[in-house]
Amino acid sequence: MKVEISDVGSTRKEMTVVVPKQEVNNVTSEIYKDISQKVVIRGFRKGKAPRNIVKMYYEDYIKNELSKKLVQEKFEQAAKEKDLFIVSMPEFTNEPPEENQDFTFTARFDVKPAITPQKYTGLSLKKTKVDVGDQNVQDVLTKLRETYASIEDVEDKEYQAGKGDYAIVDVESEENPTLSRSKMTVEAGARSAIPGLDDAVLGMRSGEEKDVEITFPEDHFMEDMRGKSAKVKVKVDGIKKRELPELNDEFAKTTRQDVGSLDELKEVIRKDLAERLEAESRSSMEKQIGEELLKENPFEVPETMVRLQAAMMIQGMSQRLSSQGFKMEDLYPDTDSLREETMSSADTLVRTSLLIEAIAKEHGFEASEEEVDDEINKLAQRYNMTPEIVKQGMEERGSLEEIKFGIVEKKVYNYIIDNSTVEEVEQTQEKE
What CA–CA distance (Å, rounded) separates 387 from 316? Predict the structure, then answer.
């Protein structure tokens, strides 16, 4: 078999394969044998019909099957021999094969780009200082109290809705009946499905009415109201208020089973905050590295790789929404626009991953079996499962490679950080 490969583009190839007539005849004989053993031709026992008779009845099928087998088998063989990493469905061109003649076909396809990273050390990076103060701990305690708060009806008719209270309202609109709502819950000063109502209900009493003019932003989920204004009448039917629990040892035990006092809870919060801030600081540096890698190492990527990554990202988004009780089409009705918007993020992710992979290959960074097992054990502890079950599930889903790539990726980032200039900055500086 003769194989020639030429460049159509930096990541697109054309392969020309010439299959010798002897191999063509061998595959043809296999097809004839298979047909004669499966079909009954009148006047002949199964498997005993002469070849010319079989050809008379099944000539078109034989040619189609021969073309399919030769192209598929020989293309896979050639791609393996040439060590090609193909990332798109090949486009085949060929004339119908004939017995006793060489068979030639061509294939066009995209390949994974071969990258030689040029610059990835000596970068100037900023690392956010990790400093957990008493106020940070207090802020978490406040949020915990809000989380564990009970919601009580306000009986006092003179009570005015304040920020964080829940107003139960009726909304009427003569000019836009679709905006009318009954018993709609609005979190005063915080959020509302209809923009502006959250601020409008501030200071209102139960039973009070108010005319409100609202303006819908351009990205609002109600497509027919985007960028438009409308007048509505709002009536407060009732107000609910959060009753925060007292901050004491009993409250601490309620929030965490592994603490016995409020002081212990504060220490746990401080430790958790430090770990989270450290993770955020690391994530910020990795983002800086990714941006620098892409800037210093330009290369072409096949669109097929980017589109596949975008499809995987959308599928993951759909699964997460589904687990939360939402439907993808309800939040993102224009799937074509969503797909195109996702392409930019997918392109960045594909390029960064390819560069990470190339740097890892250059330095021989790999994920050892012990490192993979360690990551699986961490996941098992997080989800309160046995490592064996976690590993089995990952093998069934084919996601063990993700674990391995994550380990290698961390080694690459560590190498780049160790060989770059890192400046510690305050959190506000980093954000700026």
Answer: 24
Fold of 150-243: Chitinase A; domain 3 (3.10.50)
User: How is 295-310 classified by DSSP, letter by letter?
Assistant: HHS-----HHHHHHHH
Topology agreement, domain 150-243 and domain 252-431: no
3-state secondary structure of 210: strand
375 close to 426: Cβ distance less than 8 angstroms: no
Considering the segment(s) 2-110 as one domain, its CATH architecture is: 2-Layer Sandwich (3.30)
Q: Which residue, 82, 34, 80, 74, is CA-closest to 54?
A: 34
What is the DSSP-derived secondary structure letter of residue 191? B
Domain borders along the chain are: 2-110, 150-243, 252-431
Residues forming a β-bridge with 213: 231
Instruction: Select from 236, 224, 240, 241 the least CA-distant residue to 171.
Output: 236
Residue-wise pLDDT tens digits, 272-314: 999 999 999 999 999 999 999 999 999 999 999 999 999 999 9
Fold of 252-431: Trigger factor, domain 2 (1.10.3120)
Amino acid at 221: F
pTM here?
0.68
Q: Which residues contact 333 (CB under 8 A, 6 or more apart)?
A: 223
φ, ψ of residue 154 in degrees (nearest 5): -90, 120
